[in-house]
Amino acid sequence: MSAPASARAADPEATADGAGTARAADGTAPAAPARAVWDRTAVRVAAGALLPVLILAAWQVSTATGLVPAYRLPGPLAVLEAGRQLIERGELWLHIAISVQRVLLGFAAGSVVGLAVAAVVGLSRAGDAVLSPTLAALRAVPSLAWVPLLILWLQIGEESKITLVAIGAFFPVFTTVAAALRHIDPHLVEAGRCFGLRGWSLFRTVQLPAVVPSVVSGLRLALAQAWLFLVAAELIASSMGLGFLLNDSQQTGRVDRILLAIVLLAVLGSLTNALLGLAEKKLLRTWT
Question: Does residue 134 share a domain with residue 44?
Fold first, then answer.
C-alpha cells in the first residue's frame, strides 16, 4: 500500500474527491493555512516605515548635537519651516502641481507610444530587425543630452519638458513589453489560431493577456524614469517645478529647501507608484 493510501486508511475521517484533494468526512475542504506574518498589511506597513523613522531620528540627533553643521544639513524642523514659508507665499503647491502635471502627461504619452512600438517589434520580425538597433542606440543617450536639442526645437516651454519626460517613460515600457511579446508561448498562439483568431483579435484575446504582468512592470519602471527625466528638464530649462526649486535653492544656498524638494520628490514618487499599484491589481483581475 502506498504512503497516501495508508495515510487515508489510518484516518477514517478523511476522504478524497475525484481530483485527489483531501476532504473531511462532512465533505468540507480543510481550512487554509494562516497567512505568513510578512503578508499581513499591518506588518508590511510597519516594516516599511521602520527605516524612514530610523533615518529621521538619526538626522535629528546628528543636527541637534552639532555632529553635522546646520549649514550643511539643516534639521527636520528647519526643512518643515522652509516648506511652511513656501506655502504661505503660495509657491509650494504650485511647484508640486506643475511637476505632477508634467510627469503624468509625459508618462501617459511615452507609455502609449512605447506599447505601440513594442507591439511592432515584439510581434514582427521585420519590425524587430528595422527598429531594435536604432532604439537600442537611442536608449543609451543620457537624459541631459536631449535637453539642448529639445530647447532648440521646442523652445523653453511645456512641450520640451513633457517631451523629455515622455522619452524617459518610453524606453522601459518598450523594452519590457517587446521582450515579453517575443517570448510568448507559441503553443498559446497556435491554439488561438486554431479557434480562428487572427490579427487584432489574436493580440487582444491571447497575446496581450499573456504579457499583462510585463506591461505592469514596464509601467512601474517608466513612472520612476519619468520622475528622473522631469528633474533633468526642470533643472536646466524651467521657472517653476520641483526641479527648478532644487536649482534655485542651490544657487541661493538654501540647503533646507534642497532637502525639502528631495523629500517631496520621494513622497510624490511613492504616491504615484502606489496609485499605479492599485491600478495593477484591477488590471490583473481583468486580464488574467
Answer: no
